[in-house]
Amino acid sequence: MGIARTGPGGRRESDQERLNRLWGELLREVRVALAAVQLLFAFLLAVAFTPLFSALGDADRALYVASLMLGAAATGVLIAPVGIHRMVTGRGLKYEAARWASRLTLMGLVLLLCMVALALLLVLRSVAALGDTTALVMAAAVVVGLTLCWLVPAAVMRHGSGPAPEGGQDPKKSGQDPKESPAGQG
């Protein structure tokens, strides 16, 4: 088993230790995102039982249903890594499980972003009584802001990091600069 250099301190860890650390970090990230989804989803579920809900027009009801469905999808997708982990534990599939969980977490964040956008648009149109254009511009501004915070920095970092070393090899042994290796970024 090779030793990979990771982190700013040049920490040394085996491939399995690195995989365990990355898996734990991913599950902690999922907990944060899932808490946000569940909170917003719970509020959306409660809206249907308020007096204001019966006054919503067809367009606002459609926005509500769409945001509710996105919330259900985001909840399911963000819980999926837990199910994957539970189903494959002890079968030597942690690497594959981590890859799938990472993809699902990203998908869950995209669904959460869409849910926030539609829920915000619904509230701005209905409760704040803003015009359709104003509400749409404000919701779009929030989506752009969240995209800039959630996705763009990671995409920029990934683009500039170069290719990942094969099989978690030490970047020095593979002829790659450790500063350019994802393993070097911990």
Automatic annotation (TrEMBL):
The chain crosses the membrane at residues 32-56, 62-84, 104-124, 136-156. InterPro entries: DUF6328. The keyword Transcription regulation does not apply. Residues 169-180 have a biased composition (Basic and acidic residues). Keywords: Membrane, Transmembrane, Transmembrane helix. Pfam families: DUF6328. Residues 161-186 are annotated as: Disordered. This is DUF6328 family protein.
